Amino acid sequence: MTTLLIILAVIVGIFLLICVLSLIAGLVDRILHPHGREDSPQQVRKELQEILDGSNPYALDDFVSSGSFKDPRLEAIRLRVAHLDSEFPPESKGEYCGPKGIEVIRGFVRELEHETA
Question: How do the domains of the chain map onto residue ranges?
């Protein structure tokens, strides 16, 4: 019984530590970027292309959860991509969204490509 309580205490302690570290990271991000990320359209296009290519398995999570963009248009793109899974549900396991959602991302890449050219 004592061993079980010790294991439970360790698990709770690790959970609390992770929560505190996440809170600190969020606060540091808010201090460093109080009005949002200042990424360029080129950088956003590159991140979206990584999502399409599948070259980085964390690209989607990095893009949608790394904080808001200062540029309202880029922020609108981030929010749209973040909700593509509910707008276009995946057709098979392991996909983020359906084919029409992928086309939306491709459209954003083309749009940003023309802007940066």
Answer: 1-32, 41-116
